Amino acid sequence: CKNYKPTGPIETTMCDYETVEGVTEELFSNLSELVRLPFFRYFQVDLYRECPFWPDDGLCSDPGCAITTVDESDVPEKWRAATLSKLESSSIEKRHELPGCYYRDSDFCFLDDNTEGDYYDLRLVPERYTGYSGFGANRVWRSIYEENCFGLSELNLMSGKSPAVVSLPDSMSEVFDEDGIDHNQHCLEKRVYYKVISGLHASISTHLCFEHLNQTTGQWGPNLECFIDRVASHPERVQYIYFNAVLLLRAVSRLGPYLSAYDYCSTGNHEDDRETLANLSKVVSIAQDVGKFDETILFRGENANVLKEEFKTHFRNVTRIMDCVGCDKCRLWGKVQTTGLATAMKILFEMDEKALDPYSNANLLQRSEVVALMNTLYRFIESLDSVNKFRTMWSEMNSTD
Ligand code: FAD
Predict the structure, then answer these.
(1) Measured from the CB, is residue 379 less than 6 Å from ligand 1?
(2) pTM, two decimal places
(3) C-alpha closest to that of 210 among 27, 388, 23
(4) For residue 253, how far is its CA from the centre of ligand 1 (angstroms)?
(5) Whose CA is nearest to atom 26 of ligand 1?
(6) Do 20 and 374 contact (CB within 8 A), yes or no?
(7) Which ligand 1 atom lies nearest to the CA of residue 180?
(8) pLDDT digit string (tens) for 54-87?
(9) Which keywords belong to this entry (predicted)?
(10) Which listed site, 13, 15, 249, 351, has its alpha carbon 20 to 30 Å from 240?
(11) ipTM field
């Protein structure tokens, strides 16, 4: 077991590991400031939708899974249900609806209706060890990986077909080769899908290992063994965290003008609004230097549109699978991050420069998409910061041996 640190180009991007390393500290600091501000810390979501794929197998009873909502009177008036429902009725677009949630044709996720769900203060809900594990957690991951099966253009979800495979292998490598690729049927898009999911899984594992509860002492702290076991002993998992970071940075970079023109001035506190814009512009500026993901090489060729529709359908299913996560805290962060990744992919794979124009297409993104995108980037950059800290712990431990 080596203290693994990837070097050189990051596949499917025009960026290398060293460049991302070079900005991680500054980006982490700017994003930490940004996500504590009111616009980015309140996230509205319906956490209690029924799991559409299998009967409820009981919720996590560990106190670590529990969560509290924010009273609507504590959030700025502009975001409250009554105000939003007035806006909604005047701007109905082409939508495909399921009860309470919907997607537009260009979306990679199901979104909640603005008027449904509760507000959560993400600052008060750290993504860390909760104790959620076992059959329920494994089944969710397994189902998410099973969505990486391209070639059938049926719309599983809309036809009500479950994507879940109930028997579980001991490891995902029984589904995929060691490098995470099913070589019988692989294509670039399929590999990208796998990297996105495996990178998300690795990032969540990094968080729960970094803020881990020692069951014997009751103390919270980094657990190096947990990190080595779940992430570092599979070097490609570490690489996919970088991959996701570059994908998200590219989306933020392309969205720069849109984000700069977005209306953050709804909190009533001018100092917060000024800080929000200042921090955001620092993040956008770094994203423009480093976010060199090359989306133009994807979805080309003969069946590009069919493949893209399948990709979208599968990722939308992933956002619905989040309703099957049996731990409130994990479900909240699962929803934030799948929405954030879906938003990034919509920007990269669906939008041309005209569509990104903030003046001709001001309603391109819902507030929850902007909040999810920036918080998801924060999650991945924080993971990279934790990976660095684990590397230091590993070096210190081995130098004293
Ligand atoms: P799991 O992490 O459940 O993995 C299952 C199998 O997948 C492993 O045996 C391995 O073969 C394979 N695998 C693992 N990582 C990867 C990877 N990166 N790429 C490819 N294959 C992989 N728990 C918390 O404590 N806090 C949280 O905030 C939290 N959030 C969660 C959010 C979601 C959406 C889900 C589904 C689960 C969450 N969990 C959380 C649970 C956590 O992810 C694990 O499922 C749990 O800790 C049990 O871990 P495990 O060792 O059984 O392996």
Answers:
(1) no
(2) 0.90
(3) 388
(4) 30
(5) 129
(6) no
(7) 20
(8) 887 666 777 778 888 888 888 877 777 666 665 5
(9) Disulfide bond, Electron transport, Endoplasmic reticulum, FAD, Flavoprotein, Glycoprotein, Membrane, Oxidoreductase, Redox-active center, Signal, Transport
(10) 351
(11) 0.99
